[in-house]
Design brief:
Helices cover 65% and strands 13% of the residues. The chain is of the alpha+beta class and 104 residues long. The strands form two sheets. The chain has a two-stranded antiparallel ribbon with strand order 1-2. Strands 3-4 form a two-stranded antiparallel sheet. A hairpin with a 6-residue loop joins strand 1 and strand 2.
């Protein structure tokens, strides 16, 4: 007979196979079921990505000159990598332009 446990989030009674193991709890299983944990983790991930995107945008605006200097120095120090990166970016740009042109 399979054990039944109640999820603290959705309040459903589910078999313990729907819970991750947790050595710190009395029964050895997590307090929240796997689907509830997944929903929580994806919401956290989405919020974090939005925050990081906004932060990076603000940082680029505030530190434009120092970033330009860094890129300039890196390009001088790594000419082969810079050339390869430029070729790759150019190819990606041309492919995107060709795709847009075909759609029109």
């Amino acid at each position: 007979m399979e054990k039944i446990k109640r999820c603290q989030t959705c309040k459903q009674e589910l078999p313990v196979t729907n819970f991750c193991k947790n050595n710190r709890s009395k029964d050895g299983y997590n307090y929240h079921c796997k689907p509830c944990v997944k929903v929580y983790q994806t919401s956290i991930k989405d919020r974090l990505q939005a925050y990081q995107k906004e932060y990076q945008k603000k940082y680029r605006v505030e530190n434009k000159e120092s970033l330009y200097e860094y890129i300039k120095n890196w390009t001088i120090a790594n000419p082969e990598k810079a050339k390869a990166s430029h070729i790759k970016a150019s190819a990606k740009y041309r492919a995107k332009q060709k795709q847009l042109q075909n759609e029109q």
